Amino acid sequence: MSGVRVMVVDDHPMWREGVARDLAEAGHEVVASCGEGRQAIRVVAAARPDVVVLDLQLPDISGVEVINGLRTAHPPVRILMLSASGEQQGVLDAVKAGATGYLLKSAGLAEFLEAVRRTAAGDPVFTPGLAGLVLGEYRRLAAGGDHAAAATRNAAPRLTDRETEVLRLVAKGMSYRQIAERLGLSHRTVQNHVQNTLGKLQLHNRVELTRYAIERGLDD
């Protein structure tokens, strides 16, 4: 993938500038840099980033409010949380609101840059330990057997055998690259299958797709 268009949102100027510098040196384009959530929501549609690197704790509004605002203002955007906190509820709230991934600020530079690349490609990316937390929560919700999920299941659009096969591997937390290697497909073909499946199911990202798959027991 060529350089990713990134917006950085963090209320600490030195940290924000450092992240922007690291991204630029890695060949990405930093299209905007903000210190407050409301400011980020105002500029995201004009800046048109592929990825927003977002701190969970901002001085004006909550991280969940920022995620909701960003996705409303610029629906194609993917959001990578970069936070000092790995507190369980904060992680789950961010993911449920639509964050694609969640990385702790203790991550190394190479891990961060790889997370930005994978987020732009649509892969859910989590600091080790947090992926299990998120999948565990989705399994708990699925086991709750709520009636809305059952109704959705009964009315689910028909997927092709290949789309279902890809969906099973998504539910296991595999990246596009890993799925492509497993099935002998190109990275682009896997992306196309995932995008087609998202469209059929009227879902927005791979996190929602993973929950859908787990609700149907496709992660076994």
Automatic annotation (TrEMBL):
Q: Where 4-aspartylphosphate occurs, residue numbers?
A: D55
PROSITE patterns for this protein: HTH_LUXR_1, HTH_LUXR_2, RESPONSE_REGULATORY
Q: Pinpoint the HTH luxR-type domain residues.
A: 152-217
Identify the CDD domains for this entry: LuxR_C_like (cd06170), REC_NarL-like (cd17535)
Keywords, ordered alphabetically: DNA-binding, Phosphoprotein
Give an example GO molecular function: DNA binding
Domain Response regulatory intervals: 5-120
Checking InterPro entries in the record gives: CheY-like_superfamily, NreC/VraR/RcsB-like_REC, Sig_transdc_resp-reg_C-effctor, Sig_transdc_resp-reg_receiver, Tscrpt_reg_LuxR_C, WalR-like
Phosphoprotein: present as a keyword of the record?
A: yes
Indicate whether Ribonucleoprotein appears among the record's keywords: no
Pfam families, alphabetized = GerE, Response_reg
Q: Could you provide one GO biological process annotation from this protein's UniProt record?
A: regulation of DNA-templated transcription
Name of the molecule in the record = DNA-binding response regulator
Q: Which organism is it from?
A: Micromonospora sediminimaris
